[in-house]
Fold this sequence. Notes:
The chain is an alpha/beta fold. Among the domains are: 6-22 and 29-180 and 209-231, Rossmann fold (3-Layer(aba) Sandwich); 413-511, GMP Synthetase, Chain A, domain 3. Helix content is 30%, strand content 26%. The strands form six sheets. The protein has a nine-stranded mixed β-sheet with strand order 2-1-11-10-12-13-14-15-16, sandwiched between helices. A five-stranded parallel β-sheet has the order 4-3-5-6-7, with helices on both faces. Helix 5 links the parallel strand 5 (103-106) and strand 6. The chain is globular, with a radius of gyration of 23 Å. The chain starts with 5 loop residues before the first helix and ends with a helix.
Amino acid sequence: xxxxxxxxxxxxxxxxxxxxxxxxxxxxxxxxxxxxxxxxxxxxxxxxxxxxxxxxxxxxxxxxxxxxxxxxxxxxxxxxxxxxxxxxxxxxxxxxxxxxxxxxxxxxxxxxxxxxxxxxxxxxxxxxxxxxxxxxxxxxxxxxxxxxxxxxxxxxxxxxxxxxxxxxxxxxxxxxxxxxxxxxxxxxxxxxxxxxxxxxxxxxxxxxxxxxxxxxxxxxxxxxxxxxxxxxxxxxxxxxxxxxxxxxxxxxxxxxxxxxxxxxxxxxxxxxxxxxxxxxxxxxxxxxxxxxxxxxxxxxxxxxxxxxxxxxxxxxxxxxxxxxxxxxxxxxxxxxxxxxxxxxxxxxxxxxxxxxxxxxxxxxxxxxxxxxxxxxxxxxxxxxxxxxxxxxxxxxxxxxxxxxxxxxxxxxxxxxxxxxxxxxxxxxxxxxxxxxxxxxxxxxxxxxxxxxxxxxxxxxxxxxxxxxxxxxxxxxxxxxxxxxxxxxxxxxxxxxxxxxxxxxxxxxxxxx
Length: 512
């Protein structure tokens, strides 16, 4: 159960079918062309003496070469360490120090950052530049051209490590999440089955490849012989234009992307009828935004829930995205759905007993797609598991049909005056105000209450509102102890590559 043979199978079935298109660079590769480039890269890396199990880091925006590197590592038995180019040199140096890659493959846009990493990290032997540059190092295309694209003779086992994806650090220092070939094989199978992906599907990747979110759609479409379209970045106009031009059928997004599409004044000018599956996850979806999305995009919405450590655990299918309050299914819009195939998900109390409908407990999970632990962190690994079940740290309840409703993270509960307050509940109220674009709620130190509720709000363009008016709006919809004591307006909220709001940054700035 390894992934190295995905391209070979598609070459046998339809060698000249489009495998991947990079919109920004105007590059489109067939399965035959892609496999030949991947094979050449494998041969080049082998010639450089990279051994099975060695780590290779990447620092780049989205492009077709990112897919080539990923597939080459699946064939060669090496380990991918994707780096987020939006991180600081200090943050990236920690990841390099922890993962100890021998090489880094980087885009010339990040030359200055690579120089700092080389200075701080003695273990980096060399740099492979993905495009031509005068900087010291090797050139990616030159390496590929030196080899003939024949299929290499390599040995890869299903339990070999394939990737180290680092957690976003929203609750602490980033941890390297270990994924084997077997883990990603089952994650891919799960997606193909649950989203009914077939060889006619064309997927769009807008999230950074340095995050786990766009990898499963890419692998799932390669698995069935579908096609991938990649954009360097997310821009509403670019995405709408690409969906129409490329006839995109599936797109995995994050809530903020959907929100920005809905706010785009020209959305009605584009033909989006090719879309049959619009999935979203990685961050909570405000209920008001979701209702609007269902009306605009139609019955194609799928919610996905998972963690960096688990890939996807649950889905809420398009059939459950019902915005008719007379339909009993409408309440499921607040749910993250039910467990995927090949995955077991439970909500349990502290003693491990499953909760009854309405009771709150922690989500735990088992499955072949779940990590076996953190890189070089045995104690963190031990804490993450209980009796073979991964502990997500997310608090939730279930209904009588097994649908799971996330209430909050264990460490994200505000305790004010002895009362437990869910930041998400306050955020949902703020999102329901017509002038609010984004918001995040945290607890700040309070001598009187222990913690006080504070809200950070981004107002929609051309709109205005006073803090007092927004607090009064909340007063009409929340119990007194849940109302924000302070509202701070920001131009934008700090986010991770996956779209999660970095509440630790908001807390740090509030306490400084």
